[in-house]
Specification:
The protein is of the alpha/beta class and about 625 residues long. The chain contains 28 helices and 9 strands. Strand 2 and strand 3 form a beta hairpin.
Amino acid sequence: MRVALIGQPNCGKSTLFNHVAGYRSVTSNYPGTTVRLATSQVRLNGHVIELVDVPGIYSLTTSNPAEDAAKRLLIEGEVDVVVNVVDASLLSRSLELTLELRELGLPMVVCLNMADEAERKGMTISAARLAELLRLPVVETVASRGLGVKNLFTFVGMQAGSRPAPAPELAWHSDVEECVRRVETALNGCIQARHLPRRYYAIKLLERDDEVWAATPACAHAVAEQARAELERSHGRPAESVIMSERHDRSMHLFEQVATVGRPRPDARAALDRLLTHPVWGYVFLLGILGGIFWLVFGVGATIETWLLARLEAAFAALSAALAEGTLAFAVAKSFWGGFAGGAGIVLPYLIPFLIALALLEDVGYLPRVAYLTDALLHRIGLHGTSTLPLILGYGCSVPACLATRVLPSRRDRFLVSVLATQIPCSARSTVIFALVAFYLGPGWALGIYAFNLAIVILSGRLLSRLWPEVSPGMILEVPRYQWPTPAVVLKKVWLRLREFVVVSWPLLIGGSVLLGLAEYWQLDRAVNAALAPLTGVLGLPAATGTTLIFGILRKELSMLMLVQALGTADILSVMTVPQILVFTLFILFYIPCLATITALVKEIGARLATLAALYSLALATAIGVAARIVLEALAR
C-alpha cells in the first residue's frame, strides 16, 4: 500500500514522516522531474506500507515543479491513500488544498496537525463536524510529539480501497456549479474510463489546464470554452481565478462551521519574533547568533581535537612498536592510521557541533527569518529573494543547496545561485577553516576568512548578475512559528547528515591515505606534484600540496586531512608559513566543487552550465590565491 503525505509548506508533514519513518528513508527524483520525494517502508498495524513525503504545495494547479510532481503522482494512480496534512492553526487557508484534493475522489484522510498550536491561538475545532461536512476521516495530531499518529494510520488502513462519499454541502455558487455540470455532461460518454471523477476533468478544463486539455476529447473543448467565457464575462476575471475564489469561499464557510476563535494565550514567541526580525536589532542578533555558533564550534572542536589527537598518537606508537620504520608494512599501517585518526581527531570534533547547531536553527524555525533579513541584500546583487534559502543550506552542504535552487523561477537564477552556493563554506570547507586556520592561527583569522568569503560571494553575485541581466521578482516565503526542538529529532537529523561522512567519506579518506602512503613509499607522488607544480608554484605553496588538491575534488575536507599525510606531520606551522596556510585555505574555499556537487549541478542546470560553473570557480580561486599570496607576503616583510 502506498500512502502519500500531501499538504501546504510548514504544515508539519515532514515531521509526521520522520516520526513514522524514523529517518530510515531514501530520496529520489520523481520520474521526469527534478523534484525529490522521500520514501520509506514502514510497518504499521501489521501491514507494510510505502510512505511518500511530497514537497509542500499550495495547489494542484501547477505553477512549479513540486505541484506538477504532486499532481502527476495522484492522477496517474500511483497512490492508494492520500493523507492531507493540515495546519490546524491556519485551518481556513489550509482547507483550500483539502477541497482541491477531494475533487480527485481518492481515498483520503485529513490529518489535523498542530492541534496544540491552534489551541494556543484560542481556536476550538470540531474534528467530528469537519469529518461530517467533508465526509472524510479527520484525525487531530501533534506530530512533533507523536500524539494521534497511531490513530491516524488506523484510519489510513481503513480508507484503503474506499472512495469518499459525495459532499453536496460543498457545492459552489449556482452559476459556477452550472458551468461545471455542463462540462461534466459534455464529457459523459466521450471520455475514456479513468480512476478520476468527471468533475475533476470538468474543473480542470474550466481552469484551462494544458495537461487535462490534451488528455480529454475535442467534443468537450467547445463546451468548456463557452462555459469559461460565461464565467469570465459574468465575474469580470479569468475563470481559474473564479474557481480559486470558490474554493476559498467554501473553505472559509467550512471554517466558520467547525471552528470558534477565542482569546489566544499569551505567547512570548510573538515578542521574540518582533525582536529577531527587527530592521535594526534583527541584524544585531543575527550576527550575534552566527558568531556565537562559530565560537562554540571552535571552542568545543579545538578542545576535543587536542585531547583526541594526543591519545591517537599514543595509541599508534603502541600499536606500531613491532613494525620497523621504512618497511612497506609500516608505511601501510601509518597511512591507514593517519586516515582513521584524521577523521576521528580532526573532522568529527568540528563537524558534529556544527551539524547540531545547524539542526537546532532549522528546528527552532530561525533559518527562514535569516532569509527574511537577508532578502534586501540578495536583491542588491540582482537575485530572487528566495535565493537566500539555498545559500543558507550551502553552509551545511553544497549538494542540497544546489538541489534547492529548483524552487527558483528562472534558469538564470538557478545558475547564479548554484554558482554562489558552491562558494559558500560548506561543513567540509568549514572543517578546513576550523581545523587549519582557527586551530593554528587563531579564531580571529578564521572569522576573517568567513567575512572575506561573504564579501567575495556578494561581489561574485553582482558580477554574474550583470553578465546575465534579468529582473528578479519579490520573495514569497512561508515563515514557520518558533518551536522547541526535540532532542531525539535533532540527533537523528545530525546522524542523517553525518552518516555520509562516516559511511562514504571516512572510508574514502582512509583508502586515499593508504594510496598516498604507498605513492610516497614508491615515490610516485612526485609525478602528481610535478604535474601540478605550475599551480602550486604560482600560489606559493609547497610542492607536496599538489596531491591534496586532487583529493579535495573528491571531498573538500580530504584536502586538509591529506595535507597532514602529504607533509608528514600534524604540526602544519613547522612546514608552512602563515601566508601559505591562508592561501591554501582560500584556494580550497573557492576552487572546483566536489564530485557530488558537480553531479548535482549537472542535474539542476545541465552539463554545459555546470562546466562553466566549475571553470569559473577554478579561475576565481586561482585569482584570489595569487592576490592573497602577493598581499600576505608583502605584509609579512
